Amino acid sequence: MVMKLAIILLMLFVLFLFTTCDSPFVEDVYSIRMQNNINQPLSFTVSFNYPDTLIPADYNHLRGMPANRTVFYDSKKDWDKVFKEDLPRDTLSVFIFDAIIIPDDWDEVLLEYKITKRYDLSLKDLECIGFTITNPPNDNMRGIKVFPK
Asked: Which of 1, 74, 89, 141 is 20 to 30 A from 34 via CA?
């Protein structure tokens, strides 16, 4: 009798786990779409250090964007929380590079500031563009701070 009760309780517990809205086994992911609309691969990195607009020194954060493809930059935190808790100012910087960069070239990229574009984005900017950053910038990105112009 005790064994049957234990099995029933276990089954109810498992049923409860899988019927809740927030699964304990799945993490929420908040993404920024990085859309490459040209016929060559690009690289990008994201900096949380604005107003410091130096390229972040850590090569390991560099991500590739294949030609004519979209990749995602993910956060485990809602972007509203990221902007409130993790940024010194209300701006996120995204650096675009015109090639896939190998580690041996990274010091030169940093030293000579070899960027194709830098986007400085507020949370409102990201919301206005649907959390999609395109390269080259499209009409939706009018009003976004882009360097060089």
From this structure: 89
CB 93, CB 50: distance < 8 Å: yes
The tokens describing 129, both together, are 């563009």
Could you give the CA distance from residue 85 to residue 68 in angstroms, rounded to a whole number? 34
DSSP class per residue in 52-99 = --SPPS-GGG-EEE-TT-EEEEEESS-HHHHHHHT-SSS-EEEEEESS
User: Whole-model pTM?
Assistant: 0.79
What does the alpha-carbon distance between residue 97 and residue 125 come to, in Å, rounded to a whole number?
Answer: 21
Distance CA 47, CA 77 (A): 16
Residue 27 — very low, low, confident or very high, per pLDDT cuts 50/70/90?
confident
Question: Would you give the distance in Å from CA 4 to the centre of its chain?
Answer: 49
- From 44, 100, 93, select the one nearest 72 (Cα to Cα): 44
Sheet of strand 132-135, all strands in order from the earlier edge strand to the far edge = 70-75, 30-36, 132-135
Report whether 141 contacts 37 (CB < 8 A).
no
3-state DSSP call for residue 8?
A: helix
